[in-house]
Specification:
CATH architecture of the largest domain: 2-Layer Sandwich
Number of strands: 22
Number of domains: 3
Structural class: alpha+beta
Helix content: 25-40%
Oligomer: single chain
Shape: globular
Distance between the termini: 58 Å
Strand content: 15-25%
CATH topology of the largest domain: BirA Bifunctional Protein, domain 2
Strand order of the largest sheet: 6-9-10-22-21-20-17-11
Radius of gyration: 30 Å
CATH superfamily of the largest domain: Bira Bifunctional Protein, Domain 2
Largest sheet: 8 strands, mixed
CATH class of the largest domain: Alpha Beta
Length: 582
């Protein structure tokens, strides 16, 4: 055996044992006639001691470089100067034999928790970055969560079933990644954006409780919480209603919080309609760790000859407590923040609630002290508070106000990563209108069921139809979402018709599902959690990249493998493909 113990295993109770360790050299320190070497593996770090009583051993130790792979034999001894920062800090190994298993080039960045390597270099040498304990801890947490999800769902009678990766293309929604077929030239597979239709077929097949930790693929613009390939905890249940789904997976989340964070949620998770989420937070994934709800002001502020408010479709604001001491410079910074192109507000109005009961505002010219007092009362504002107001088109302004709310909360330290505020967002619109194409699209996907009480609106006012859908949101992050599915063929055909599918197109893309429904489909519904986002939340990360072993960068490239790349002409010929450059 190359080792009898790992580098994180030995304790003071192992003193005087002769042991064999193997791992990577973390650092070498020469002190007088002794050399100290820290050896590291996945489990921890152990200090090795080379004494001047064996000059040959000391010489070997002094020649060791960072990341050399070595094997040592020695005796466990109690350290005279203990290190309380590591589990093995009470012992050290007095080395009697060393074997260099592999030399190493000097790595391009330090393999330390606080490394000197930037994102690009660490992505290129990801196999070295994974040696850092902070990165490894994220993957260990991912493993534990995935294992515990499997165990928990198994106790509830769920069965894990794998579904195929090469499927047919369903271009509604995000773009598909497509794969050419050599055996069927001119035809293409698609990589699944989710196992949606396949898990519905499993319900038709009688597998009434399915789950899968599934790879999914979407060709869309990337950001901190998106990767072109990601992992879902994908679940589906038969003979259930929305409440059954919410109770089942709220239970799973409560279990994970106890398991991972030792946090016990004894009360039911808060539920909020999509309409209220947009009205009070400007987002369908509101962060409710703090208040600062929107207050609509259009009626209260109109008619004072202030054209910005009078001409706006929507006027709304937030109240930041104890921020009236913000300087003009700080308010100017917030103004520039909301005017960024990605946010798009034209300006920012402020009202300071002074300690003497007066009000100082950027709109003093148009509004008297009594007017400002009435506005402040709508916010229940107190002395020392700062009111911030935006105006414009409703949707755009609410989104900008949402970004401002999050920015202020960040500055005030209200977005503590160790505080968790779970929330179910329910009653989404079933359809959303797209001005560019002048048509309705499914807010979620074409298989989402409308609320039973709204089905009659499909004939008269589809914009008002609510979906039997739900999202789980924690700390402003959508961790998962799902819906009750349509299981009636007639209603499904109506849905396709409203979405602009001809019967021929619906049959071509989804005929396999519609045909299956003809053989008795049970009422069913499901939910999928983003495993990457879940791990990121529990680990307190800002990006899901840090909990994925080999992620892509923001351009969708794997800079370590240099993918995507060009393929040989011979491969193109086999696939009957030709590259046409723009």
């Amino acid at each position: 055996m190359f080792r009898t113990y790992t580098c994180g295993e030995l304790r003071s109770s192992d003193a005087k044992k002769t042991v064999t360790l193997a791992g990577w050299v973390q650092r070498v320190r020469k002190m007088g006639g002794m050399t100290f070497v820290d050896i590291r593996d996945r489990y921890g770090i152990t200090q090795l001691v080379f004494t001047d009583s064996n000059a040959e051993l000391c010489e070997k130790a002094n020649k060791l470089g960072r990341e050399y792979v070595i094997q040592v034999i020695g005796e466990v001894a109690i350290r005279s100067s203990k290190n309380q920062n590591i589990p093995t800090g009470e012992i050290e190994i007095i080395v009697s034999q060393i074997n260099i298993l592999n030399e190493a080039k000097t790595p391009p960045f330090t393999i330390e928790d606080n490394t000197d390597g930037g994102d690009d270099i660490r992505m290129k040498y990801r196999y070295l970055d994974l040696r850092r304990s902070v990165v490894r801890a994220n993957l260990e947490l991912r493993h534990r969560i995935a294992f515990e999800v499997r165990r928990y769902l198994d106790t509830l009678g769920f069965m894990e079933v794998e579904t195929p990766i090469l499927i047919g293309s369903t271009p509604e929604g995000a773009r598909d990644f497509v794969v050419p077929s050599r055996m069927n030239q001119g035809e293409f597979y698609a990589l699944p954006q989710s196992p949606q239709t396949l898990k519905q077929l499993l319900m038709v097949s009688g597998f009434d409780r399915y789950f899968q930790i599934a790879k999914c693929f979407r060709d869309e613009d990337l950001r901190a919480d998106r990767q072109p390939e990601f992992t879902q905890i994908d679940c589906e249940m038969s003979f259930i209603e929305q409440e059954d789904i919410l109770q089942t997976f709220e239970g799973m989340m409560k279990h994970l919080f106890r398991f991972v964070k030792n946090i016990d949620f004894t009360e039911p998770f808060l539920r909020m309609t999509w309409h209220d989420a947009m009205k009070y937070y400007g987002s369908d994934k509101p962060d409710i760790r703090f208040e600062m709800k929107f207050v609509e002001l259009k009626e209260a502020v109109s008619g004072h000859d202030f054209v910005v408010f009078d001409s706006a479709d929507y006027v709304g604001g937030i109240c930041a407590e104890n921020c009236a001491n913000y300087t003009r410079k700080q308010i100017d910074e917030l103004t520039e923040f909301v005017k960024r192109p990605q946010i798009g507000a034209k300006g920012l109005v402020y009202i300071r609630c002074e300690n003497d009961g007066s009000y100082k505002s950027s709109i003093d010219k148009f509004y008297s002290q009594d007017d400002l007092k009435l506005i402040a009362e709508k916010f229940s504002a107190h002395a020392g508070d700062l009111i911030l107001i935006l105006a414009g088109g409703q949707i755009k302004t609410q989104k900008a106000l949402c970004e401002l709310r999050l920015e202020i909360a960040g500055r005030l330290g209200l977005r503590n990563k160790e505080i968790f505020a779970p929330l179910w967002v329910i009653d989404f619109p079933l359809f959303e209108w797209d001005d560019e194409t002048s048509r309705y699209y499914a807010t979620h996907h074409p298989f989402t069921s409308p609320k039973p009480e709204d089905i009659h609106l499909l004939e008269s006012n589809i914009g008002e139809v609510r979906a039997n859908a739900y999202d789980m949101v924690i700390n402003g992050v959508e961790l998962g979402g799902g819906s009750i599915r349509i299981h009636d063929s007639k209603l499904q055909n109506k849905m396709f018709e409203l979405l602009g599918f001809t019967p021929e197109k619906a049959q071509a893309q989804f005929g396999f599902l519609m045909n299956a429904f003809c053989y008795g489909a049970p009422p069913h519904g499901g939910l999928a959690f983003g495993l990457d986002r879940l791990v990121s939340l529990f680990a307190g990360l800002d990006s899901i990249r840090d909990c994925i072993a080999f992620p892509k960068n923001n351009s969708g490239r794997d800079v370590m493998l240099d993918a995507p790349g060009i393929i040989d002409d011979s491969q193109l010929d086999e696939l009957a493909l030709k590259i046409v450059k723009n």
